[in-house]
UniProtKB/TrEMBL annotation:
It comes from Candidatus Doudnabacteria bacterium RIFCSPHIGHO2_01_FULL_41_86. The chain crosses the membrane at residues 20-39, 46-64, 76-103, 139-157, 164-182, 188-209, 221-242. This is FAD-binding FR-type domain-containing protein. The keyword Transmembrane applies. It comes from the Bacteria. Residues 263-366 form the FAD-binding FR-type domain.
Length: 493
């Protein structure tokens, strides 16, 4: 399967659903392998432990959601239950299994700041059980027969999340610490091979480390976070009743992530919704407190839906408004057969509220105001650029920017008033490419409008297929990878 087909598959499901499918496949394989003796645990024990974890997590999550009056997210409970299934020894004491499930869900609602998770739920749960009843995780997923599937599935997850930087930084630092801790005369390569093949290291890196709600908001901080967790995980130490373990390393790393990330979730009250282009709507929300964000960043939005479809009740949307405005705007395209999430969103009335959090994103303006920029937007991919140009207008900050805005028909142009204002007040060059009139935006058109482009940085935002196509086009024109920034947020659909 080629990369385009892989991306096409991944873009059809949210990151949460992709993770859940991956974990369920691992559990199913473990059950099958145990039948043949390839996994050293009883088949019925694996099934029983997993069923208990799923049931208790689901019920506990529902109870806490009612107590704290927040939307139920069964998908999150399923994922946590699946993670715990693969690290808690099959057939473990019933009290241990039940407590781990309860603690994992309690952590989401109780150990948080303004609704934001502080710790990875599964990791803090097994630490809590160790403190309370002196029973901890065995990480039995570290099985040689499961490793190939962990690698393949983990690579797909990392691609979906675009978190290869996080995984790689963790592995590099962790393995370096491992090598330096070996006794004299030990074979370093054998130790590395054994660690990667016969342990749960890769499962930890791909599944638990990349958990979005406890991951820092941008690339530099993610790399630092991975390195911190890798260093701690590779160090032997004891803190009171706790000893060095993957879950303790992750929880300690979570503290760093929390300190450098946006704090908490926001209650958004819908003020107005209106059609800004055919099948494209603008939603204006009033947040319950000020959000300090950079133009081009995104938030994760959670809705209370009557019945979730395969894509769940959470979505990531780029903020279309500027930090200089006192409201938060979204621009959303509605296609045929919209998801349950979008159906619920469009049915909202003024005064109703939704939750948003997980502010993140690297698709932001460079600090160097002298850098020459090219913005390429396709369809609703104009939203981050609307945020940027509105910010520049309000700050009266002139930059050398050329913006290409590609739409199928002229009626699909959104935010034309703001773009015209940016052109008039800041001298930003706006080029509309209407495909049913002008044809596709291609190399010939780019070079005609930009005779000199080698000194520019290109920003590309739009449907994933369009973004990938332009990345390839720009590279074929000789634009270096470091001069191409692509808009990305987890869970594209």
């Amino acid at each position: 399967m080629t990369v385009p087909y892989i991306d096409s598959f991944l873009n059809k499901i949210t990151m949460y659903r992709a993770m859940l499918y991956f974990l369920l496949i691992l559990i199913s394989l473990a059950i099958i392998f145990s039948f043949f003796g390839w996994v050293p645990y009883d088949t019925l024990d694996i099934i029983q432990t997993s069923l208990i974890l799923f049931a208790v997590c689901l019920v506990t999550n529902w109870i806490f959601s009612k107590i704290f009056r927040v939307p139920t997210n069964n998908e999150s409970a399923y994922i946590t239950a699946a993670i715990l299934t693969l690290i808690i020894t099959p057939g473990a004491d019933l009290l241990f299994v039940v407590l781990a499930a309860v603690f994992s869900q309690a952590a989401k609602y109780i150990i948080n700041f303004r609704g934001k998770h502080i710790f990875n739920p599964a990791a803090i749960a097994v630490i809590a059980t160790l403190l309370v009843i002196q029973q901890g995780a065995s990480w039995w997923v570290g099985n040689i027969y499961l490793v190939p599937f962990v690698i393949v599935g983990g690579l797909l997850i990392a691609r979906k999340l675009q978190h290869f930087d996080l995984v790689i930084s963790f592995l590099i630092v962790y393995l370096i610490r491992l090598v330096f801790s070996l006794p004299d005369g030990a074979n370093s390569w054998s130790a590395i091979k054994s660690t990667l093949i016969n342990s749960s290291t890769l499962y930890f890196a791909f599944v638990m480390l990349t958990e979005p709600l406890t991951t820092p908001p941008n690339r530099k901080l993610r790399i630092t976070y991975g390195a911190i967790v890798g260093f701690i995980a590779g160090t032997n130490f004891i803190i009171g009743p706790l000893y060095s373990s993957p879950e303790l390393a992750l929880v300690l790393g979570n503290i760093f992530s929390f300190l450098v990330s946006d704090k908490g979730r926001y209650k958004m009250t819908l003020k107005e919704k209106k059609e800004i282009a055919p099948a494209t709507f603008g939603f204006e929300f009033t947040p319950n407190r000020k959000i300090n964000f950079q133009p081009g960043q995104y938030l994760e939005w959670t809705l209370k839906t009557k019945k979730d479809d395969l894509r769940g009740n959470r979505r990531y949307f780029t903020i279309a408004s500027s930090p200089t405005e006192d409201h938060i705007d979204l621009g959303i395209k509605f296609y045929d057969k919209p998801s349950t999430f979008k159906q619920t969103l469009t049915s909202l009335n003024a005064g109703e509220t939704v939750l948003a959090g997980q502010l993140a994103g690297d698709f932001t303006l460079p600090k160097d105001t002298t850098k020459k920029l090219v913005f390429i937007a396709g369809g609703i991919g104009i939203t981050p650029f609307r945020s940027m140009v509105k910010y520049l207008i309000d700050k009266k900050e002139k930059r050398d920017i050329v913006l290409f805005y590609s739409v199928k028909t002229e009626s699909e142009i959104a935010y034309k008033d703001i773009l015209s204002e940016a052109a008039n007040k800041l001298g930003i060059k706006i080029i509309y490419v209407v495909t049913d009139r002008d044809g596709l935006l291609d190399r010939k058109r780019l070079e005609a409008e930009l005779p000199i482009w080698s000194d520019r940085t290109f920003y590309v935002s739009g449907p994933r297929g369009m973004v990938v196509a332009f990345e390839k086009l720009l590279k074929s024109m000789g634009v270096s990878k470091r001069h191409i920034k692509s808009d990305f947020f987890p869970g594209y659909v």
